Fold this protein.
Amino acid sequence: MSLMADTLFGLVPVASSGQQWVARDLQVVNWGGYDGRHRIRLASTATLVSGASGSGKSTLLDAYVALMMPHTTPFNGASNGAVVGRPRGRDQRNVLSYARGKIDESRTEAGTRERVLRGADGDTWSAVAMTWADQSGRRFTALRGWYVPAGAQRVEDLVAVRATTDADLDLADLAPSAARRFRRTDLTALGLVCYDTDRELTARLHTTLGIGAAGGGAKAVGLLARIQAGQQITTVDALYKAMVLEEPETLAVADAAVEQFDNLTEVRDRMLAAQRQVRALRPIRAHRAAVDAARERTAVVDAVGGPDDPASPFCVWRDERRLTLLRDAEAEHAATARRLTEHAESARAVVVGTEHEHDALRDAVRAQGGDRLEAVERELARAQETAARVRAERARLDRWLAELDASVTSRADLDRQRAASRGFVAAADASRRTARDERLAAYEAVTRARAEADRLEREHTSLGRRRGNVPDELHRARVALAQAAGLDVDELPFVAELVEVRTEHEHWRDAISLALGGFALTLLVDADRVGAFRAAIDAVPSAVRLRFEGATVGVVHHGSVDASLLPGRLDLRDGPFTGWLAERLDDRFAYVCVDDARDLGTHGLALTRTGQTSEGRRGAHGGHGRASVLGFSNTRRLADLASQLDAAREELRLASERSEGVDLRAAAAEEQRAVHAQVAEAEWERVDVVGAERAVADWSAQRDALHAGSDTLRDLEARLREVAARLDTQRQDAARAAVRRDDAHAAWERATDAVDACQTALDRAADKGVEVTAAQRDYLDAGSGVPLSLDGFDGAVRALAAQTVHERALAAAEERAGLDALAAIFTHFTDTWPNPDLGTDPDASYADFDRLLATVESEGLHELEGRWSRSLAQLSGNDLTILHAAIGRSVREITERIEPVNAILADLPFADADHRLRIDARPVESAVVARFRKALRELATDPTSKRTEAEQEARFARMARLIDRIRRTSPDFADLVDVRRHVRVSAEKVDLAGRHVALYDHIGEKSGGESQELVAFIVGAALRYQLGDAAAERPRYAPVFLDEALIKADARFAGRAVGAWRGLGFQLVIGAPLDKVGALEPFVDAAYEVVKTPDGRSRPLAVVGLDD
C-alpha cells in the first residue's frame, strides 16, 4: 500500500507522526510603529489581536508575512485591497518603510519628504522573529533582520539577515551585531545558522516545520497568505478557485504552445525575410560583374589612349603600322617620279622641234608682209575685248534703269539721268537722320511695350502661385530673407496679406490702402525670433529695402470694432499675428471714415474716400493710381492683371508692326539710293555698245583686205596656224607631263617627310619608354582590321579613335547603370531592413552586402521552408494535442480530486451535529469553449501530408488565429485555457445519510456569520491537504493568521467558525477591529490590544495574557 496520497494539492502522507508545531511567540524590533523590541505570546489554540483603525495590528501581522511569505506577497493585504503597484514596491508598504517606521509624507521646497520614526538622519535596523514549539517541548526560531544605511532608497540597499536556531531567541541580543552591520561571526556566536538566500531559508522552514509534502511547501504557504489576506469573495465557486485551486497546468501548456508557435513564427519571419533578402541581393553579383567588366574595358581604353597624345600606346601602334605603309608608299612614289620625269623630258623635246618649225614659218609670213597683218589682228582682238566689256556694262546699266523706270539712248540722255540720280542721292543722304530717328523711336516703343508685358506676365505668374497682392519684387525679396532665416514664407507675412476690406466697404479700398501706406508692406516676425532673424539676414543682399517688425504671437483677438472706423472696415486673417495686428490697427489707424472732406477737422483722426487723412493739424493726400496691395485673396488683382496683360500684348503687337513698317520703308529707301548712286557713276564711253561694235567691224575689214591681196601669204598663214595648233597641243601635253612629274616628286618628298616624321615620333616614344602591350596590340588590331592602303589605314585609324571614344562612353554607361542598380538595391534593402552598419554606396558597401548575402545563403534560412512546414505540423501534432488533452484531464482532476476534501468535511459537523458540508464540482462548457476545443482538435489531428504553398499559408493563418486566442493578453485566454472556469464549484449541506439539505452557492446570500463559517470549513479542509496532513489526526504546521477575519459574525457564528478551524487542528491568530472583540473574545485564550501614541508609536497590551 502506498504511503503517499495523490491529491489536487500534491503528494501527502497517508498518516503522520502526530507532531505539530505551534507558534509560541512573535517578536519585532523597529518594525513599523513598533519602536524598539516587542513580543507577544501566542496561545496554542487561538489568539486575538485587536486595535483601532491605524493602530498597527496589521503591521504586527505583516511581520509574520515578512518572515514566512515570499517577497511577492504584499503587506496589509486584508486592509488595503485597492493598492496598486508591484507588491512591496515603492507604492506599497515595504520592508524599508517598515524598518524606518514611516508615518506620512509632507511637501517641502525641496520636494516630498517622508516623516519617519527612525533612520531619518542616520543608520537603523529592524528584525522580526517567531518561535515555534512542538508537543515534546522542542523549540525552533526563525528570524529576518535588516540593516538600513542612512542613504538607502531601495530594499536592495539593505543588509539582510536570514537565520534560524533550534532554541528560543531574544531579538534584543541582536543589537550589538546590528551595530556592526550584522557580521556573520557575531550571529554565529549567538547560535544562529545563517542563510545566504531566501530559497535556503524557505527550504529549512518547510522541512523543519513540516509545511507541505513532497516539495509542496510553496503551495501551502501561498494558501496561508491568501487566507491571511482574506479578500471578500461572493461565491463558493470563486472562493474555492481563488483560495484553494492552484493555477492549472493548462496555462503552462498553453504558454508553451504559444512560445513554440512564436518561435516558429520568428523562424518563419526570418525565413521569409531571408528569402526576400536573397531575392533582393542575388542580382548584385551580376551587376558587380558588369561594373567590373565595364571598368576593365575602360581601363584598357584609357591605357591605350587616343590620337591626340603622341606618347600614348594608340599613337605608337598607329605610327608603327603607318611607318610600314609609308615606306611602301615612298618606294612607289620614287618609281612613279622617275617614270614621269622621263616622260616629261620626251614631251619637251617634241615641243622644241615643233617650235623651230613654227619660227621658220613665221619668218616666211613676215617676209610676205605679215607684220601689218599681225598689227591689225592685235587691234582687232583689243576692239573685241572692249566691245564685250561695254556690252556687260550696258546690261548692268539697263537693269538699274529698269528699277528706276527710265532709259537712255544717247550721251545727253545719260547726262540728264546722272544729274537726276545725283540729286536723289543727295536728298536721300539728307533724310537718313530723320529715318534713323524714326526707326529708333519705333524700337523704343517696342521695347517699352515688351517690358510692360513681361512685367505684367511676371506679376500675374507670381500672384498665381501665392496669396495676397504684394508686388513680385517685394515677394521675391521676402522669400530670400525667409530662406536665409530658415522660415516658411507664411511665417513672414506682409501686413497687407493679413487684412481684407469688407465687401460692403469695397469702395474704400484705395483710401484704406493709402492710409495704411508703408505699414501695409511691413513684414511681421515673431517677436521672440527677431534677434535670430536679424543675424540670419544681415549678409543677404537685396535691391529692395524691406521693413520688418517684431510682433507678439498668440495675442487674443476680441473681434471687430466700430464699422465707422478704418479697423472696423477690415477683416483680419486668422493666424498667430491676428491679435497683435488688431491692437496695432486700433492704436495707429483708428481713422474715422467721412464722406465729406469738410468733416475731417471734426475728428482727431479721419479719412476721406479719396484717401486724404487728417491727424489734428497734420494731413496727407495723393498717391493715387497705384494698385492696392491689401487682401487675403488676389482673385480681383489677377483678373485686373489679366486685362492689363491683354492690353499690353495688343500694344506690343501694334508697336512691333509699326517698327516693321519703318524698317521696310528704310530698306526700300536704301535700295533706291543704291541704284541711283550706281547710275550717277555711269559714263557714256563705258556703255556705248554701238561705238564699240563699229570699231570691231572696222578692224575686221582691214584684216580681210590684207588677206585678199596675196595667195602665198594665205598658204603660209594656213600652215602657220596648223603648226601653231599642233605646238599648242604639244605644249599642253608637255605641261601636263611636267605637272605630273612635279606632283610625283612632291608626293615622293611628302612620303619621305612622312616616313621621317613617323620614325621621329616612334623614336621619341621609345625614348619615353612607351610600349604597346600584346593585349593592347590585339585590341587595336581587332578594331582597325587589315587595311591594304595608307588611305584605308588612316580611315581605319579615325574610325578606331571614334570607336574607342564610343566604347569608353558605353563602358562608362554600363558602369553607371550597374552602380545605379547596386545603389538602388542597397537603398531598398536598408529601407526594408534598417541597419546602421550598412551604407548604400555601390563601391564602399558592396563587400558588406556580398558578405551578408553569403551569410544568408550559408545559413540556409531561405531554404528551410520544408523543415518549417514539418515543424508546424509537429506543433499541431504535439503541443496542440497536449493542450487539448490537458484541458480535458485538468477538468477531470478538479472534479475527481475534490473527494479527499469532502472526506475531511465528512467528519466535521457543520451547523450542528446532524449535518455535514460537501463540495460539488460540475463541468460547464460554453459554446465558445466547445468551438475552441473543436478547432484545437481539428488542428491537432490535421494530417501532415504535403500541402501546396497556399494550403500551408491558410493552415498557418488558422493556427495563428487560434494561438492568438490562448495568449495571456487575449481577452479569451482565461475562458479558454483556465480550466477552473470550465468547472462550477458549489457547496451543499447534507445530513448524515448524505441527503441534500441546502445549497451554498452565492456566499453573499448568507449572513456574515454563516458566510465566514462556510469559508472556514472549505478553506480549512483544503489547507489540511496543502500542508500535507490528509489523514493525520492534526496538521503538523498549526498557525493560521486571519487578518480582518470573522468580523461579520455574531458570537454564535464566530464561535462556530473558530470551532471549525480548531476542529481541523489549527492554531489561530486573528486580527480584528475593536468593535468585534466582544464576539471573538470568548473563543480565544489570549488577546492583545494594539495602541498608538500621539507621536505614532505602537505597542501591544495584553488583555488576556499568557504565563511565560
Notes: Residues 901 and 1045 are 22 Å apart (CA to CA).
